[in-house]
Amino acid sequence: MTHRSPSARDPASVELACEFGPLRLQSPILAASGCFAYGQQFAAFTDLRALGGISTKGISPLPRHGNPLPRICETAGGMLNSIGLENVGVDAFLRDKLPFLRDLGVSVWVNFFGTDFPTYIDCARSLGNVPGIDVLELNISCPNIKHGGIEFGTVPEVAHRLTRACVEVSAAPIVVKLTPNAADNVAMADAVRQAGAMGVSLINTITGMAIDVRRRRPRIATTYGGLSGPAIKPIALRMVHQVATRFPDLPICGMGGILSGEDALEFLMAGARCVQVGTANFAEPGACPRITRELRALMAELDIARTADAVGGLHPWPPEAEMHDR
User: Fold this and answer.
1) How far apart are CA 246 and CA 233, in angstroms?
2) Catalytic annotation on 142?
3) If you count Cβ atoms within 10 Å of the first and of the last residue's Cβ in the chain, which end, N or C, has fewer?
4) H or E, element range at 23
5) What is the pLDDT of residue 1?
6) What is the pLDDT of residue 152?
7) One of 18, 35, 123, 142 is an active-site residue; which one?
8) Quick one: pLDDT band at residue 236, thresholds 50, 70, 90?
9) Is the overall model pTM greater than 0.90, yes or no?
10) Are 273 and 251 in contact (CB under 8 A)?
11) What is the mean pLDDT of the chain?
């Protein structure tokens, strides 16, 4: 027999639906960009309609073949990737991928990028005025392309100008995906907030490397790649909390090493309004629905009635009551 604490509630009574700016998501658990392809590939393995949303692979104006192989390797507590943003391009995405996503009934976030200002703006214009796209996730943070991403993602003034230019040509709201490799993520969040971004996604991968000592070679062809998975979760939580503390009204989508409902709840308590699950999908295609079930059960156990009640619910340390006892 399972025993619940007296304060626990029925999991069925927990309201997972949440607000992210003007959006209402049926769940705070989304599939992360780059880890869920275009959704179609996972349809045979999991119930896509149970998700809060899907963030697509990064889309560029023209198709990209990505980086040479090998471009992925497992590490302690995660993985390195240097895919190079391989994608089908705007036209093929709108023709072949978006209709499937639009019919799912979940929130559709289209991650996009360019290599310079004109290509970013062209992509925002092409994608941001199409029915069925709820959010454009502006990727200024990818560490494994040779042009554009790092500069756009680490210099506040550049990020501000780029965000403003994309906001001006898109009817869909812009959420900017920020890099953890910037010197000051609070300053970066402020720059894109002032430029008109509806929210931010935190964090993208952390630049890292791995070495095959027997062959004396890097384990991925580009030498450096993006580290993701549980190893980066403490860093991601810290950055989400810093931005949420400074800008409590700025919607944050948190991500970085989420493997369980408890991980997701940590991000919500740190100040995220929703989360994206990434690397976990490679090992477990049904990770997102499982994490959703775990989150619901944990919220019920802790007597948290709604997702909104968890957001920013972190108590200072030590608790005030303990201070009075000293």
Assistant:
1) 20
2) yes
3) N
4) strand 23-25
5) 41
6) 87
7) 142
8) very high
9) yes
10) yes
11) 93
